[in-house]
Amino acid sequence: MNAILAVLTSTLSLLPDKPKxxxxxxxxxxxxxPGVDRLFFFIFWLSLFFFALIVILMLxxxxxxRRREGVEPExxxxxxxxxxxxxxxxxxxxxxxxxxxxxxxxxxxxxxxANSYEVQVTGQKWKWLFTYPNGHxxxxxxxxxDQPVRLVMTSEDVIHSFYVPxxxxxxxxxxxxxxxxxxxxxxxxxxxxxxxxxxGTGHSDMLAQVVVHEPGGFERxxxxxxxxxxxxxxxxxxxxxxxxxxxAQCHTIDGKASVGPTFQGVFGHEQxxxxxxxxxxxENYVRESILEPQAKIAAGxxxxxxxxxxxxxxxxxSAIIEYLKTLGALAxxxxxP
Length: 337
Ligand code: CUA
Prior knowledge:
Blueprint: H1 2-12, H2 33-64, H3 81-110, E1 117-124, E2 127-131, E3 137-138, E4 141-144, E5 148-155, E6 160-164, E7 169-173, E8 179-184, E9 189-195, E10 208-213, H4 217-226, H5 228-231, H6 234-244, H7 247-250, E11 270-272, E12 278-280, H8 283-291, H9 314-328
Parallel strand pairs: 1-5, 4-10
Antiparallel strand pairs: 1-2, 2-3, 5-8, 6-7, 6-9, 9-10, 11-12
Helix pairs in contact: 2-3, 6-9
């Protein structure tokens, strides 16, 4: 009895338009999601119906027309026009329904409304960056409720894929070109962003959140983060930029070397360079390393850092330098308060 109930519940959860995620599909949180799911379930149940029909008929025929003692098989009819028209016509009709329906859903999802709010998305190993019309860059995608949002996406390095299951959108993000996708969030909340294209060691950590704000909340949030220098000290801004702009992906602050050297305790110290010699890590060294990373490579590391020329303002670079100084003041092993 319990087993039957369990099967029934899981079958019921296959039905579309459930508010929370079901057995097969995650929560529906965008305007496109219900339409995608309806089509998915139509194809799913249709396939299941024909699978069952074919298997059952096959078993019936196997039993009914099995070879028996003393029964001679009748000669097979060579042709049955009516039967052939039916078994060609019905599948043709069904695939045409799937095509027209699918094409309509695809078009709706491809063409963003003219009044869409535009956000630039950059994929890089291994994080997402979202740039807003006012220049603010964030590691999460904040959007207003019920407003079409158009994403213009590109990659700094390899192919990534922007994927939000709850919105039913997924689009490749390719270096050297722009790909676009749009959605209209229909529910306040936080939704997971994945990278859906294997892009190296940190692929499965290439995560972000879509934060859907209640009416008015998005404007408040934008106001708060848009004026970082008004509300924060340069050190706080530097710390924030360190996390938001991808420094943290390669430079730790706990003294351990990663892809690049750690930031802990480096400011004011003499750095051995690749190919011999050394340099004092001061304001100018940090600035040069951000703008022209290949100019001086720390010994023991590869020249893999991209330039931040044009991506960080002078003011932001100064803030990062101030932040580095606070790390330099810590003794090895000490934790940042
Ligand atoms: Cu980026 Cu996987």
